[in-house]
C-alpha cells in the first residue's frame, strides 16, 4: 500500500494513506495547490528538496505557512491585507 508524508499542523511529519491536498515550500513557508504553475516551474531549480505536503489548508496555516500569490490569489490577498481590524485572521506569518 502506498503511503504519503504530510506535514501536520504542529510541524511534524505524519504518514498518511491519503495524499495531501496542498503542497508547500519549507524554505519560503508558502503553501498552494498541487497544480500551481509557480511550483511546477521551480521544480527544475531545486524546489523539490524543499517540497512538503499538507492534508488541508488548516494544517498549512497552523504550521506557519502563508498562501501562494499565484495559485491562491484570493487567499493571498486576504493574507496580504494583514490582521488589522479582523477577528479571525488565521496566519502566523505576517505580510511585510
From TrEMBL:
Name of the featured protein: Metal-binding protein
Superkingdom in the source lineage: Bacteria
Pfam families: Ada_Zn_binding
GO molecular function: DNA binding; methyltransferase activity; zinc ion binding
Record bears the keyword Repeat: no
Residues of the Ada DNA repair metal-binding domain: 24-71
Biological process according to GO: DNA repair; regulation of DNA-templated transcription
Keywords: Activator
Species of origin: Vreelandella aquamarina
Amino acid at each position: 500500500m502506498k503511503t504519503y508524508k504530510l506535514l501536520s499542523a504542529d510541524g511534524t511529519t505524519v504518514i498518511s494513506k491519503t495524499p495531501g491536498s496542498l503542497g508547500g515550500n519549507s524554505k519560503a513557508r508558502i503553501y498552494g495547490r498541487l497544480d500551481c504553475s509557480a511550483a511546477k516551474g521551480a521544480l527544475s531549480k531545486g524546489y523539490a528538496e524543499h517540497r512538503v505536503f499538507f492534508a488541508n489548508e488548516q494544517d498549512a496555516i497552523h504550521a506557519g505557512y502563508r498562501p501562494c500569490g499565484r495559485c491562491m490569489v484570493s487567499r493571498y490577498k486576504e493574507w496580504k491585507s494583514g490582521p488589522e481590524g479582523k477577528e479571525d485572521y488565521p496566519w502566523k506569518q505576517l505580510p511585510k
